[in-house]
Amino acid sequence: MWVPGASQMPPSTKLCIEIILALLCQGRLCQAPVYQIQVPSRVTAQQGLCVLLPCHFTANFESSGIAYKYWFKDNDRDSSPAVATTDPGRALREPGGRIRLAGDAPDDCSLRISDVKAGDRAHYFFRFVKGDFKFSYRETQPLVDVTELTEPPVLGVPKVLLSGQLVNVTCQAPGTCSGTPPQITWTGGFDYTARNVSVALANGSVSYSSELRFTPALGDDGKELVCTVTYPAVVGVFTHRAVRLHVRYPPMLLPWGNCTVRGRGPGGAATCHCAAEGNPPPHLEWRLPDRTLPGDFEGPELRATTWARGPAVSGELRGPAGALANVSCAATNAHGQSQAALPVVPAAGFSLTLVVASAVGGSLVLVGAGAAVAWKVVKGRTSPEEGEPLRRKGEEEEEEEEEEDATRGEPLARGLRGQALVRCLAKPLTPLDLPVTCTRREGGTVMGPLGGGARPIKQWCHRPSKARIGRLKPSPLPWLEHG
């Protein structure tokens, strides 16, 4: 049997009262306890955030006097400083309102803790006082458990980031606490503007977020954007979330695509070259006056082949000169299309095109006709860790002789992967045969149809088999060097 105030009585007195009441209890004299409390036995909070302990209680509210509510830690006495109270004359463990009673209703004893700290972990009990009636609910002591902050912020990133188009990215801090506002910072390695946004919610809590505005560029593809949320009220508490940017852009046909013609009359043959880049990588098409051919095609007279690496795509179309007298190249992806007519260039003499296909990924597309093409990247090293040039002993003199016999072209590209200078060296050779893929040391690629009569010196270029399928077979080229 429940007896008001029994928890504060000596055991013998409590037992006597319970026996007497049990003997006298009849009908309406035996009623439910006057003081009851409804509160969860346990709530969990993360450091830096806030927690609400919902609570309602019953008592004799008809008693005269002012009602006061108190929350104490489990080992406190009724006369100890309170954790939270509505009594202005009672001392508090921690002034400032970080821990306070949240409800205004007479039967509401809800407790709110902001800027949760590890020291807040404890059992708590509620006490109610009104006039001469005083009662502490010690038999029900809920536990406030405190854990480390593991909840990351919520990032709102558009599904598609288009190069050159302004975008908004949001970062919402965990929790909706009305305590000390969190600090939200961004890192990403590009220019941006950000502003903090706070929204007051209906229940008195606050949502904190930051809005980032920036215009993605081609160079931002693959960069990591990080939002970090720091809670200054609790030392060392922060959380973050990162997202990798995928910047899309429509295809761009790279200049100097052409069709080279060898021979005259019905026996003449033509080879057309085209290169483009985009994200996602575009699909190439060859548009003739009477039909359109896909990038990879095998027919009685015409044959088309494409090579792709990263965002760069290179294509070749072969066939009779008469059938390829009027050819356009088109590149298409989900964000647009680019098309251009290819000029016809006689194969006699020297014809060369070097295209920087992707300054972002460090890729090159090399297109030549009727000539052997040599390219050299002279890079300004900034540290010895970058290694020695890809050159063997005894090759310098041999390569210098080749340069004396060759025609030195003008620099066609600068700024690739830092301080890079690309020069073209060329001299007539046999007709172009098979495609060659050369992997640059910095991770880029040279792609294009190159002659097959070179002497084997270099070991880092590969030519596919004649069937153009299967594994790559090493076929070094002597006129490719890195310095």
UniProtKB/TrEMBL annotation:
Pfam families named among the record's database cross-references: C2-set_2, V-set
Topological category with respect to the lipid bilayer: Single-pass membrane protein
Xref: Gene3D superfamilies: Immunoglobulins
Record bears the keyword rRNA-binding: no
Key words of the record: Cell adhesion, Disulfide bond, Lectin, Membrane, Signal, Transmembrane, Transmembrane helix
Biased composition (Basic and acidic residues): 382-395
GO biological process: cell adhesion
Ranges where the record places region Disordered: 381-413
SMART domains reported for this sequence: IG
Biased composition, class Acidic residues, residue ranges: 396-405
Similarity annotation: Belongs to the immunoglobulin superfamily. SIGLEC (sialic acid binding Ig-like lectin) family.
Protein name: IgY6
Source organism of this protein record: Platysternon megacephalum (big-headed turtle)
